Amino acid sequence: MRALQIRRNRFFKLFLLVAAILGILFIIYLHSPENVHNISTGSLYKRTTKQKVTFLEGKQLGNFEPEDFPHRSGPGEGGKPHHLSPNKQNEGAQSVGEYGINMVISDEIAMDRSIPDTRNGECKHWQYPEDLPKTSVVIVFHNEGFSTLMRTVHTVIDRSPPQFLEEVLLVDDFSDKAALKEPLEDYIKRWNDKVRLLRNTEREGLIRTRTRGAKEARGEVILFLDAHCEVNRNWLPPLLAPIYRDRTIMTVPVIDGIDHDTFEYRPVYGPGSNFRGIFEWGMLYKETELPPEMERVRPHRSAPYKSPTHAGGLFAINREYFLELGAYDPGLLVWGGENFELSFKIWQCGGSIEWVPCSRVGHVYRGFMPYNFGKLAEKKKGPLITINYKRVIEVWFDEKFKEYFYTREPLAKILRYGGYQWPIGIEEKIEL
Ligand SMILES: [Mn+2]
Fold it and tell me: How far is the CA of 430 from the centre of ligand 1 (A)?
């Protein structure tokens, strides 16, 4: 008996020793250089418990698919064009001069008007994880029309599952229009703390103001929208699902057009087509259809797909990842080129960009930019946007590719773009 017990004891001790060694080896393995990255992304721990996105065969609807829009009649309902009565047309034309948008038309249209469902029919049948990350929708504005700004907020609140919407964060880039002062503060009280308002104390420009919004946001994901949008049905879960799967993925909704003079809502792209963002060597942003060889291997045309870049205005990203990348380069001026800067940084730091056909957001394309850059542009010689492009290229392109840009934009050679400070810790992330 005793002999057996001693043997058992020994066996037990040996077992403990082996278990301890295995444990230590596992800890060393976790901290080896290849895996440190995984740990910091959180994917190693969460992978086993994460829910999957699945496509439901048959007629079954996906878990976040809402009821159809009730049939309503009224100005602009159904996304139809709206026209002013003759006695208001002058006023309407004047507002186009002031805002680049016909605000008199906008004011006559309901904040929550119905709009056509422009998605691929498949989109109704996707099942998304129930524990998607909470999101701060960040909306930067400068002298925006009141009703277009508020319609953006109304549609976000009405058409997002509340459990995934941490807040809508409005960031005012030093507007001076009276309607955006107290009346705005009073209006958003109806949403209690769900809608927050921050104000810059001087003009900072879109790029820096967005970075401020990202820093002050409370959600795990930040989602930037322009200040004149209408989000469409079930727009949010499809944008969050890829980020939930991998925090280094940035997601981009497909944009529909809203006419600045009639508020007609219509798709920009042909039905069923999938486009993605590219750039040419003079840094002109373009879009091309997804190549057939990529489309062929995708089981569903409505599934997200990789894209080199994006137009800039509307996208979602893990907040901490965005800040780890140094947010937007603070040396970029006002507007332009920030979409490329962020895209290049994402790919060169191991991340990627996905366009999401099942997330549709309407955007008013303005007739022109209704404001100037004020003091922001005074100190600089040369076109701001070319200075920005030069800065992005000098930082992120290899010599060979820089030459392609200078061949297209020879004048850029003599422009000065200022000193560049690498974001802290980014060197370890760059994959050469
Ligand atoms: Mn816009």
Answer: 31
* pLDDT at residue number 423: 83
Q: What is the pLDDT of residues 258-285, one digit of tens each?
A: 999 999 999 999 988 999 999 999 999 9
Residue from 195, 199, 131, 140 nearest 166 by CA? 195
What spacing in Å lies between the alpha carbon of 225 and ligand 1's midpoint?
8
Q: How far is the CA of 27 from the centre of ligand 1 (A)?
A: 49
> What is the rounded distance in angstroms from the CA atom of residue 121 to the CA atom of residue 3?
73
- Residue 132: both structure tokens together: 């998607």
The CATH fold assigned to 60-365 is Spore Coat Polysaccharide Biosynthesis Protein SpsA; Chain A (3.90.550)
DSSP string, 329-358: -TTS-SSSSHHHHHHHHHHHTT-EEEEEEE
Dump pLDDT digits (tens) for 2-13: 555 555 666 667
More confident residue, 368 or 189: 189
Q: Residue 167: which of 135, 141, 189 has the closest Cα?
A: 135
Ligand 1 mean position to 313 CA, how many Å? 7
Q: Which two tokens stand for residue 306?
A: 């990789």
Predicted pLDDT at 428: 81
Say how many Å lie between the CA of residue 14 and the centre of ligand 1. 68
Phi, psi of 305 (to 5 degrees): -145, 155
Q: How far apart are CA 135 and CA 221, in angstroms?
A: 5
137 phi and psi angles, rounded to 5 deg: -85, 115
- d(CA 118, CA 267) in angstroms, rounded, equals 7
Q: How far is the CA of 55 from the centre of ligand 1 (A)?
A: 33
